[in-house]
Every structure is written in C-alpha cells, then in structure tokens.
Amino acid sequence: VEEARKKLKDPLKIIEGPLMDGMKVVGELFGEGKMFLPQVVKSARVMKKAVAYLEPFMKAQKTEASQKAGKFLIATVKGDVHDIGKNIVSVVLSCNNYEVIDLGVMVPCEKILETAKKEKVDVIGLSGLITPSLDEMAHVAKEMQRQKFEIPLMVGGATTSAAHTAIKIAPHYTRQAVVHVLDASLVTQTLNALLDKNESEQFLKEYREKQEKIRKKHKESQDHLLSFNEAKNKKPLLSWDNIPTPEKTGVWVYNNIPLDEVIDYIDWSPFFWTWEMKGFYPKIFENKKWGKEAKKLHEDALDKLQELKNQLNLKAVIGLWPAASLDEDVVVFEDKNHNKELARFHFLRQQRSNKNICYCLADFICPQHLNKQDYLGGFVVTAGPEIEKLAKEYEKKQDDYNSILIKALGDRLAEALAEKMHKVVRDIWGYGKEEDFTNEDLIKEKYQGIRPAPGYPACPDHSEKKTLWKLLNAEENVGVQLTETFAMNPGSSVSGLYFSHKDSRYFNVTPIGEDQLKDYAQRKGCSVDEIKRWI
Q1: What is the SS3 assignment for 44?
Q2: Annotation says 338 is catalytic
Q3: Domain boundaries, the chain
Q4: Is residue 224 annotated as part of the catalytic site, yes or no?
C-alpha cells in the first residue's frame, strides 16, 4: 500500500483504483459462485486495512471519496445479541461498493429510524436470531409506516423466513418493499434491484404478488387445524413401565471445562453453513466446488481452537428434579414425595395430527394421577463472554475474518458443550452408562431421550426460559443473562430441558389455533397478545 501511495501520490486513487477494482472482481466472482465467503471476508480484510492505513493521508489532503452504490443501514434488533449473519452481510456489501452503517446488536427501533433519517440511507436492514426478534421487526415496520418512510426494508437471520415476512411484517409497511433475504450471496443482487430506477418498479410488483400468494396459502392452512379439544384426544399412549431413576437429583455447576473435552463433540456441518458452504462434514471436503476452501477454513478453525485453549472459561449448570405432567403442563417438585412445587413448565400441543397423534412435550413425563416417579432435567451452557471480547478485538484491527471465525466457533463450542453435558446427565440418570456412540451417532441423536430448547419447534415460547433460569440460578451460576426478549447473553450459549422417555421425540408444534392460545395464556396468567409475542 505504501509503495502504491508513493507511486500514485493521491491516496484516493489507490482506493478507487486498484483496491476497488480488486473488490469489484471479488464481488462479481462471489455473485457468480466462483468465490466463496471465507475468501470474500479475507479480501475485505485486506481492503479495510489498506483504507485504514490511507485515511490519515486522505485527511491531510482533505480528499473525499467518490459516489457509493448506495447507503445501507443494518442492525440486530432490540433484545437480540446475535450478529454473525449481520457482520457477513456488512462485509459482502462493502465489497460491492455500498456504504454500510452498522449499528451493532440490541438496537432499539428509535435509534434505527433516527439514524436512517439523519444519514439519509437508501435501505434499512434488520437482523435477528430468536423468535421475539420477529415481533420487534414488525414494530419497526409499523413505525416506518407511521413516520412515512419510503425506503425498502430488508430482513434476515436464522429465525426469519419468506413466509413470516409476508404474513407478519410486510402488511405493516406498505409504502415500500419489505424483502426477506436468506443468504449473503443474494443481498447484493436484491439491493441492486431495489435501488435500480429501471428495475425497482417491476421487482416490487413481482415481489408483492409473491407475498400475496404466501398470505393466501397461509390462510388456507389455518382452516385445516383440529380444535384444541380434538387435539387433546389424540395424545400418544405411552408405556410408563421402567421409568429411569437418576442416582441423584439437584443442581450441579461446572466451571473451567477443558476445551479438549469438548472439541470431540463439535458438529462441524453448521460451522460451514455459517460460511454459506452447504454440505456435511467431513464429506464437504470432497465437494468439487468449495471442498478445497472448506478444508482451508477447517484448518484455520482448528488452529484458532488451539489458540483459544487458555483464553476461554466454558461453563455449565445442569439440574434433575422429580416431575409429573398435568395435561399440557409439567410440574417440577422439590423431592420425590411431591410435597412442594418448585416450578411449572407450560407447553403447547400440535393441532395437526401426525399418524393420528398430536404431540405435546408434557406427554413424555408421567401423568400425576398415575402416582409414579418421573424426572425432568434442565441445562444452561456457555462458551463465555470471552468469545465476544476476542471478536471485538479483531474488529478493532479491521479483521472481520477472525472476528466471524471466533463467533462461529463460539456457537459450535456451546452446542458441543450441550452435547457433552447431555451425556453426563444420561449417565447420572442411569440409562446412558451402557452407551457406546461415535460422534456421528451423537450428532444423529441416536441416544435415548431429547433436549428441546424454549424457542424451538417443540416449545416455541421463549418466555419459558425464565422458569428454567430460576430453577438453575443460571445467571449467578454460569453468568448467562436473559435479555428483555429472552435472548441469551453471551450469545454463544445454549439452554434446554432433558426428557428421558424412550419414545420422546422432536416435533413441530405450530401452527396453533386461537382456542389453544387462549387456554395457554390462561395457564401462564397473561394475555393472548403477549403469548403471540414470544412464539
């Protein structure tokens, strides 16, 4: 860079000449599928460091950069702390000559819209991982309508979908497009279409027609739900013989869990998906298109894990309690005599039958009226706040590649720790001692029992985490807090419940009818509107 500066004299010419030419090629190759996300992020790192080096010279010469393709504001919405996807989108758009204003995580609606007005942005982008974030996105859309915005709104993140965007967000903001984007590779072409004067009108017309079809299909599907009473009559008939009895009950805290004990439990496939490389580990290395790059990425990840060994404090808290089901609830007791109720978890039942069965998680705990002893478990695990701190240090050094790498590894370590602790619990419960599973077997969940998490398909209500946190004293024991929308902070954390029944299984409980929502709200002591916010 210094060599080029001495040769060309004008720092702006270096940025808008060789650097931008190079990034343009990177953006085009990525759009054509000839270059992959890790390469793009590494290229952006070179660009950022070069620009940071040249900035003092530009200020000295009072030079201003030329026209950008557009101005894009991006933020993870209020109550949500996840930002890997958001950071990837920021990098990709920067590579394509967009000016990106990144407001970070847990950003309130007011700040998003104030900044959008002040900076005169062309598009607002919202990101989120947990279900309540969708409600916050709808709130932003309503405010954009009320404040008479006339710029496109783009939404993305693991919990978002084209269907949810069309049904729950787009109707609140009709002054411009509300677009869902699944992959970073599609963001640039979508933005180009939205901002192109010749193309935008047709794009908007076609996109709105597509969303209308989605809404129509959704309305038709709602008409085919069973009533809640019918669904209750289709609960599974399970055997309650030989209920596993744990060797002890209570709550146990684990600190400074060695990284070496956790690495073997890592499911690497989602790590590659974060980088938009589809496929399963280790077969992904044979992929003709990105196998070679996936191998390089994996090697970088393994090197980074070695670096992290003395920098992280992996923590876990697990609990096992006597429990009994009462219709769609599970009651947790202090002791096996069921004298004192400690807490109560509320669950939902499917209203679409699968082989004439409508499942609810409470079905997998022995009913109270049978007077038999059963148990429920719970856990919270975390890779710790160090992940976020290390990622921020890399960001300060203009190193998005290592920042994203650290966060992606943090998520994998949290999931791996959840897998390891489930094995510990199965051993305490007794039925896990005879297991002899490979890592692949564990990933495929070949063991007995399940560990569903609040906010996921079988129990979509995030607010149930509050009960789990209280039982495990999770904030004090492992330092994991819940945000106002029940996202876990630090973000590289996992929580859930343990069920031991041999017939327990995962399922998708939605869609839910209004009749069950009323019953559920009554059980939880809140309004139907509040319930809808959390699921």
Answers
A1: helix
A2: no
A3: 1-67, 71-218, 235-254+313-534
A4: no
